[in-house]
């Protein structure tokens, strides 16, 4: 049976040795001292290991069940959901005014990784609620906030986001769902939405759907889309539940993974909805939810890679097969453990060096979100806006790859369902698709984010890397980490320059390289994280840390990333520089 | 619903324009003229599309069922199996003496790709039988051949291979299954084997298990392993079926994919077995089966990539979403088809450029097998022996990646089971594992095959590439294909040289780079195939072909591979040259 242990030590290292969160000027960060975060992480890790992880295979095997319009979640989900609510976990980083714990987003990300790793399908119920609540918080009227937020922060009511329709996913301008204004200021919402995660279930007494729809007579296409709150049960003035609204679940999908989360076809049949934000400005409001969701999805990629790695590592130590080519390591046993073999180590090191840097990248990104939201830091806001597609696209692609590699360590045992490794791969696969398929992330990065505010944010990123390399590179022992980072960063700048020059002449020259650029950017970010972690570990060693092995391991893992992963930037650059021609040459008919 | 059309035109191009099979001196090849192979391919393509492909989702959804020791295959499998038998397909390349069609292996590979693409789980029943029959053909006594081969060639009886036990997979020296000699010259086989594909089912009247076991008192470890024929029903002297033997299926596995094929736990309880080949030389005999199986598994990787690509391509032409950034391509419709978008094209071109070159690589490899087996060509035998791990490891890794990319074209529709794309990914995943996990293929390549016969075969490969580049490179128009191939081949030689120099000092220096070397080798092989296909297409164009678009498309796809895929060799080389240190630095305890 697979198991999960929350990587609290690694999380503490990143928060305190690398990011030094309690020294940061961001409001609320002063409280994040080592003991405080240790206590939170330990509690969260415990519930993840003991409550959520055991339900992960249950959710996969049982799946959800739709009967007469009611969706039943897998055995044990209800009790675990209640336990999460009782612990206040869903509202950890929501405002105290609405019953949340008021902690920074970075802490929400840290515990969120634990929960997602232990049980992605389960954690989505509260994750989507968080996103919907954030959107109401950002765009709702005072009355709307008062009506919904307390309940949603507590997860007594959960939330959803309704974008996709059968004929439109990425291109939401094609949307057909209608919202007709009523005399009382409400709307009647009619249409069908698909792929609605947590659209219907038995975990909460009400479900607050956020639904994109068009008000008749409005602008054509995406400019005529508005956002509506459509509760499953209408809410009376006193906050109690009123009659059932005209929304129902028509079907739940059979899918490759995340079986424990109900993916619903939702039918809106003159359902009562309330405008959220301004008329025809629905996409802007929805993006509040989507940007947060994209960071959360990037986190899922890392989380699945982490639990897959943990189990692959344990298996590689237990399973005896073959002998170390340089001489037996377990001479009294019938064979040596798998971990003695170089290619198994290569595989494990790829996983380890990805997961640890990806975690640092996520937490660093989360500090930018806190700086933007809590401190109004517009540079941080611009930078995280630039990073969001990289976090979502690169971390989920690589996270999935790592679950595949972890599976491989098990040989045939990785393919049968009994050992649980197949589930990580099947669950991780969705993260590359939802909240904007990764190709769309690449398009967002190259087509929109690079040029945002006159290219200010990407230049700020390069300056930051340059500044780090200069300062850190002053010490001789940092040279081995800083030099590869410099080379990789130069590849990224060259690629960016290529887009600027060629993209002006032919936008396809830039867009043909967008996917490679997203990965190139991701590698530079993880290289930066490894260099920063190396710096922190060297400092800890110099200060006479009591745990030198931990820090020596960080340095060795950083070296692996620099030697074995960062060279990918050259290949990405070569592909980018080959331009549009190889990609665009064929007529569609000739493929 | 997914569909499948056999790529007969592409197959014909490779067989006749590139490999020029009917001009080859290999016995039997003179018969392979265009019309003859066209007729065979067309028939095979028809049964693949019309009979096997519709059963593919059925097999996935229903799976196999074990009841009271009997395994029931999915609805429709029995009738389809009978249809395959009636057409003589299972024995297409088996000797006429035993009821086969006597055609070359290359033709078996060609039609095998169609069948595997249309229904991998189904085709495994006959594929394993083919491997078992080949082993009996190579190592059996005349009596054994007479007893089993006619029935197996016809698939009236199917075959299996039994290697793995619960505690040993790759390291078969740990095997516990025993074969005790009996007075009549037979053996009593006792033990448990796992992961036995097609171990029990209802498609054939008898199942001939080939079982590895140890004769008590024999040498320790792998040197004491022998191979046995253990029929499900004993065979009477007149060839009729006798009593049930002491072998039974204890369980069938739940697994990620290939649900239509029963993966069995087989219990041998004093079952009567007959020695196949020599005592204690079981591995040598089993390798006849495994080498063939490895080529067959490489083919499965290509086959799943092909069907996934076909469906992704069709979807990208049908699905309207967004507008071409350079202006509408479908101005009268609500949006343009997906295929206008550069990143969708990048994705599709990666698939197309892989599948077509991989197919050529497989067919070329198959001509080497024919040359070795039909003509006793020892150089061809050495070369295919070197290539086998590359074909198995590289083509299944990439084949799987391509199914993942194909799924991505569908967005959310790729994740739900309804569209069939998830099945290709789940089915393709096994090919990276069985018949020797891909890490073991890399070890076989670097640890054994490179140095085989004093390194003769790898040098022959380099000479062949060099010779091709020299001859083909004489024409100016081939320069754009030959130059990148030369660079990639140089990277491969540099890597090989690195292993020779560093591997002498430290074997881990070579083995740490084995996986990258396997991929580097694979890229050079596909680069070579693209250069050869480009040469053939240029010749066809120069000769005034009636189908210039087909050949122009080949050239464009070759250019894509050279520009976008072949640069990977530099990254693989950089990783290899970083040596053992980054991979081996950590103590097992510190991961």
UniProtKB/TrEMBL annotation, chains A, B:
Signal peptide start and end residues: none
UniProt feature coiled coil, ranges: none
Acyl-CoA dehydrogenase/oxidase N-terminal domain location: 78-154
Enzyme Commission number(s) of this protein: 1.3.99.41
Assigned keywords, A-Z: FAD, Flavoprotein, Oxidoreductase
Pfam families for the chain: Acyl-CoA_dh_1, Acyl-CoA_dh_C, Acyl-CoA_dh_M, Acyl-CoA_dh_N
Domain Acyl-CoA oxidase/dehydrogenase middle intervals: 161-269
UniProt-recorded Gene Ontology molecular function terms: flavin adenine dinucleotide binding; oxidoreductase activity, acting on the CH-CH group of donors
InterPro entries, sorted: Acyl-CoA_dh-like_C_dom, Acyl-CoA_Oxase/DH_mid-dom, Acyl-CoA_Oxase/DH_mid-dom_sf, AcylCo_DH-like_C, AcylCo_DH/oxidase_C, AcylCoA_DH/ox_N, AcylCoA_DH/ox_N_sf, AcylCoA_DH/oxidase_NM_dom_sf
Cofactor(s) this protein cannot do without: FAD
Domain annotation Acyl-CoA dehydrogenase/oxidase C-terminal: ranges: 281-444
Source organism, top-level taxon: Bacteria
Domain Acetyl-CoA dehydrogenase-like C-terminal: 461-587
Catalytic reactions of this protein: 3-(methylsulfanyl)propanoyl-CoA + oxidized [electron-transfer flavoprotein] + H(+) = 3-(methylsulfanyl)acryloyl-CoA + reduced [electron-transfer flavoprotein]
Family: Belongs to the acyl-CoA dehydrogenase family.
Cited function: Involved in the assimilation of dimethylsulphoniopropionate (DMSP), an important compound in the fixation of carbon in marine phytoplankton, by mediating the conversion of 3-(methylthio)propanoyl-CoA (MMPA-CoA) to 3-(methylthio)acryloyl-CoA (MTA-CoA).
PANTHER family with a match to the protein in the record: ACYL-COA DEHYDROGENASE, BROAD-SPECIFICITY LINEAR ACYL-COA DEHYDROGENASE FADE5
The protein's name: 3-methylmercaptopropionyl-CoA dehydrogenase
């Amino acid at each position: 049976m697979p198991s999960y242990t929350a990587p609290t030590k690694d999380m503490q290292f990143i928060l305190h040795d690398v990011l030094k969160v309690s020294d940061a000027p961001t409001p609320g960060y002063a409280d994040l001292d080592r003991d405080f975060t240790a206590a939170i992480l330990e509690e969260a890790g415990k519930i993840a290991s003991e409550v959520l992880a055991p339900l992960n295979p249950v959710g996969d095997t049982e799946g959800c069940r739709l009967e007469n319009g009611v969706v039943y979640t897998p055995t044990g989900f209800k009790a675990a959901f209640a336990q999460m609510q009782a612990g206040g976990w869903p509202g950890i980083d929501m405002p105290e005014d609405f019953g949340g714990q008021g902690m920074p987003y970075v802490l929400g990300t840290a515990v969120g990784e634990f929960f997602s790793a232990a049980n992605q399908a389960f954690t989505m119920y509260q994750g989507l609620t968080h996103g919907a609540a954030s959107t109401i918080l950002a765009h709702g009227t005072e009355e709307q906030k008062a009506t919904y937020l307390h309940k949603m922060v507590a997860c007594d009511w959960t939330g959803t986001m309704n974008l996709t329709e059968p004929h439109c996913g990425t291109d939401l301008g094609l949307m057909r769902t209608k919202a007709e204004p009523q005399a009382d200021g409400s709307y009647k919402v009619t249409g069908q939405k698909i792929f609605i995660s947590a659209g219907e279930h038995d975990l909460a007494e009400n479900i607050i759907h956020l639904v994109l729809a068009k008000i008749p007579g409005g602008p054509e296409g995406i400019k005529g889309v508005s956002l509506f709150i459509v509760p499953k049960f209408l809410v009376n003035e006193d906050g109690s539940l009123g009659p059932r609204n005209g929304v129902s679940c028509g079907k739940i999908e059979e899918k490759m993974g995340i079986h424990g989360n109900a993916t619903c076809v939702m039918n809106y049949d003159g359902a009562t909805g309330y405008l959220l934000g301004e008329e025809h400005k629905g996409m802007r409001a929805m993006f509040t939810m989507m940007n947060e969701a994209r960071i959360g999805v990037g986190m899922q990629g890392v989380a699945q890679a982490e639990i897959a790695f943990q189990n692959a590592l344990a298996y590689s130590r237990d399973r005896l097969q073959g002998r170390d080519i340089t001489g037996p390591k377990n001479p009294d046993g019938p064979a040596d453990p798998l971990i003695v073999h170089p290619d198994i180590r290569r595989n494990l090191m790829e996983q380890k060096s990805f997961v640890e840097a990806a975690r640092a990248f996520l937490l660093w990104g989360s500090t930018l979100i806190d700086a933007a939201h809590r401190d109004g830091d517009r540079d941080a806001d611009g930078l995280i806006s630039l990073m969001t597609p990289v976090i979502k696209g690169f971390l989920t692609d690589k996270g999935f790859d790592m679950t595949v590699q972890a599976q491989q360590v098990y040989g045939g045992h990785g393919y049968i369902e009994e050992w649980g490794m197949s589930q990580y791969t099947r669950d991780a696969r969705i993260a590359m698709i939802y909240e904007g398929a990764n190709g769309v992330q690449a398009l967002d990065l190259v087509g929109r984010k690079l040029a945002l505010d006159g290219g200010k944010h990407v230049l700020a990123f390069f300056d930051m890397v340059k500044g780090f390399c200069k300062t850190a590179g002053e010490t001789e022992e940092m040279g081995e980490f800083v030099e590869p980072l410099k080379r990789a960063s130069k590849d990224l700048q060259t690629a960016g320059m290529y887009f600027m020059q060629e993209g002006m002449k032919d936008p396809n020259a830039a867009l043909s390289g967008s996917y490679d650029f997203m990965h190139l950017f991701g590698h530079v970010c993880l290289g930066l994280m490894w260099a920063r972690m190396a710096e922190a570990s060297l400092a800890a060693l110099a200060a006479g840390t009591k745990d030198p092995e931990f820090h020596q391991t960080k340095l060795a893992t950083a070296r692996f990333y620099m030697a074995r992963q960062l060279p990918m930037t050259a290949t990405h650059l070569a592909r980018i520089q080959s331009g549009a021609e190889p990609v665009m040459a064929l007529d569609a008919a000739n493929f």
